[in-house]
Design a protein that fits this description.
The structure holds two protein chains of two kinds.
Chain A: E1 18-19, H1 40-53, H2 67-71, H3 75-78, E2 99-104, H4 105-111, H5 116-120, E3 127-130, E4 136-139, E5 151-155, E6 158-159, E7 180-187, H6 191-194, E8 201-207, E9 215-223, E10 226-239, E11 242-253, E12 257-258, E13 269-283, E14 286-298, E15 310-325, E16 328-342, E17 348-364, E18 368-384, E19 389-391, E20 395-412, E21 416-427, E22 431-445, E23 448-459, H7 463-466, E24 468-473, E25 476-480, E26 487-501, E27 504-522, E28 532-554, E29 557-572, E30 591-601, E31 605-614, E32 625-637, E33 640-647, E34 653-654, E35 665-668, E36 670-678
Parallel strand pairs in A: 5-8, 25-28
Antiparallel strand pairs in A: 1-30, 2-7, 3-4, 5-6, 7-8, 9-10, 9-36, 10-11, 11-13, 12-35, 13-14, 14-15, 15-16, 16-17, 17-18, 18-20, 19-24, 20-21, 21-22, 22-23, 23-26, 24-25, 26-27, 27-28, 28-29, 29-30, 30-31, 31-32, 32-33, 33-36, 34-35
Chain B: H1 14-27, E1 31-32, E2 45-50, H2 58-63, E3 67-68, E4 71-78, E5 89-92, H3 97-107, E6 113-116, E7 128-133, E8 136-142, H4 143-148, E9 152-153, H5 155-160, E10 162-164
Parallel strand pairs in B: 2-4, 2-5, 5-6, 6-7, 8-10
Antiparallel strand pairs in B: 1-9, 3-4, 7-8
The chains are: A mainly beta, B alpha/beta.
Amino acid sequence: MITKREKINAGFQSGKAIVNEQNKCSDSVDGNKKNGPRNFISTALFFSLAVFSQHSMAQTVDTSLSTGALKKLSLEDLMNIEITSVSKHPEKLNNAASAIQVITQEDIRSSGAKTLPEALRLAPNLQVAQVNASQWAISARGFDNVLSNKLLVLIDGRTVYTPLYAGVFWDVQNILLEDVDRIEVISGPGGTLWGANAVNGVINIIMKSSKDTKGLYAEGSIGTILPGSASLRYGGKITDKLTYRAYVTGFKMGSTNLLADSTNAKDEWTAVQGGFRFDWDPSEKDKVSLQSDIYDDRPNPDGGTSKPVIARGDNVVARWNHTISDKADFQLQSYYDYTWRDFRNGFTENLNTYDIDWQNRYKLGKRNIVTYGLGARLMDHKVNNLELFEFLPEHKMLHLFSGFVQDELMLIKDRLRFTLGSKIEHNSYTGFEFSPNGRLTWTPSEHHTIWTAVSRAVRTPARIDRDFVISLAPNLPLITGSDLISETVIAYELGWRVQPGKNLSFSLSTYYNVYDNIRSAEPGPPPFGIPIIFANGVKGETYGAELAVTYQLTSWWHLRGGYTYLEKHLWVKPTSKDSNKGTAESDDPQNQFLIQSTMKLPGKIELGTVLRYVDKLPAPYVPDYFGLDVRIGWKPFKFLELDVTGQNLLYDYHSEFTPSSPTPRLISRSVYGKVIFRF
Amino acid sequence: MVGDAGLWAQQPSSRESQVKAVFLFNFTQFIEWPAKTFPDAESPLIIGILGDDPFGNYLEQATTNEKINSHPLIIQHYKTVDEIKKCHILFVNISNKEQLDLVFKSLEGKSILTVGDSRNFIRQGGMIRFFTDNDKIKFQINVEVAKAAGLTISSKLLRLAEIVTSKNN
């Protein structure tokens, strides 16, 4: 007879400590662009920008446990261990065959990040540069720009994208950071799964299920360049299978300073966003979610006496995951997204996006996993033109139909797999586009993965490429769109992931990208060289490496970080007369590194530090800088937390990016305090 | 898959296998087998795996040097049900309906705790089935079937389980 033996219930918590963040600093800033022809295209692009720019704590149990440690848990605790698979779990990243890096809720919280772009700084494989109080230039593997167009961003499956310039308006993505589950940052092409515009990377922002946000959360902040910020969220359950949350968050961000004389740029930014989410598990095999956001945003990138831009929007996303059997599942997702932006100079943009997407995954025999899907998107895009600044026609209905299929073939069980797939899309501007991908993954041991991939991805034209006209006077165009075709990249990647100990993991990703048909600006006929016309006159290649490390030194000290190297060469085709030689599309640092430390100290104190280095930007020139952010958090009671965060501590002022418009800015050292209640 | 998805996930995560292995080990302490299944005090308690082994090293790690009331733990692997001579806990890694039927048929009358994770495992006559809920491992227990096999399941285990019967699952 066997009797029961009681187990020791080792109480442990996951947890890291606090974090602080770092910021950047820079010494002297002399990032003045040269004038003259080399900046013509940037002038052209940024001319348009000028217009645009007016404008718990998931209480999970520690994931780094050995089998021996698991044995010491009570059955109850064992039932609370999360076992999510690869893409859902940083731990399982070890087998992910791509350059994916994950920013966890803990990383964000401990860094003291106030906004989504600040949180994205924590991904060492991204280039994130603050341009002014409300604008950022964000990209991966180069081509960083305020109008970056080679990165695809999704928030809970909803593509955050404007067909105006094929990029992201970062000022209207004001999610409640507390409710972020994790941010997956995939550098490298993701076209096979995500389609056009996932050229250099994909940012996948995944919010917590409302199952994990029960109770009341309230926070308020104030600081030296943070006039105020407050958030409120409440979540609960209606039945055991149906949970919900609702939130509202709002802030006023203080100004940056003018690069010219360090005076206040008066570019304050206010925003309010709210929303709700329901999660329903009608059965063990089904998961349904419904979520919605609504916002009102007032950025003022031009600053000074300009009136702030008004941007409003809302969205609804519904998703259904269904497990058909042990071997098959599918996901059906649909969303509606509305955005409206009044640049306060007469130009407005109005966009309604309707999207439906279906994916099915089947295990075929013992060796194959087949994934396929269909999607359709309609973008009803309307602008109010200015006399000399126009998108023609004003109203355009854009469509995107897509299908994809991918097979993952296990060549040697648990050791070697080959993945082959392609997305096929049809869009309004260029018709059919293909984004194939082949990937070989070798897993010599459970803690060791080597992968290589060849992918093609495309950046399809946006309205700015095709329908845009800036005129000097009526019927005297200065810059015009053209029959621009898609920009393409062929990417060759080789990566290595290893976990030498259960507390230590490395990932190294290397790549060589070959670009063709990058946008150029071709001068018009003499004598004046106008109108300037967009063309596909630039080719290029980039290569580089991304190293990421996480290290849990002790139960109270967590370190993570990375180093990114980028080498970029662009040149014009013989047929092109682009005087910028393609450089206007991007301004990228060659070297970047990041170290984030999170320490749980005695006395319920957390100390977080983020140190960052960003190399100089070549043109327009911006000096290299170090950023240091430090956060000290004190949690005297379960329901109360007090934080003080210093950002950009090393310098009085520093510059991160010099756009052609609006005027370049400096970001100053700042400190803010935060009070958090949780019930 | 889009949005929140196992883009790279195809097999059970290592964490999942590890947790299940530890559960299997834990079950040895919450089940009472008929005395005749242990000829003497030093007879081993045998955990068998039928079909592919999904646990990697985890089950070894969980059971090595462990004794349950002086019974050492031993792991055995079986390709077919006919190979099973003596066994106390059997993890059945088979999801095919017909095969499962055959397995349960040939185990009839034996005091073996059957554990599995395929969807129809309980419905076809299994005793404990793992399932995933909100990314956590939960389990169902069919008490009647266990009782019929002469096994007594501790109320501690039952309290944490979803209790099901062959019919209503």
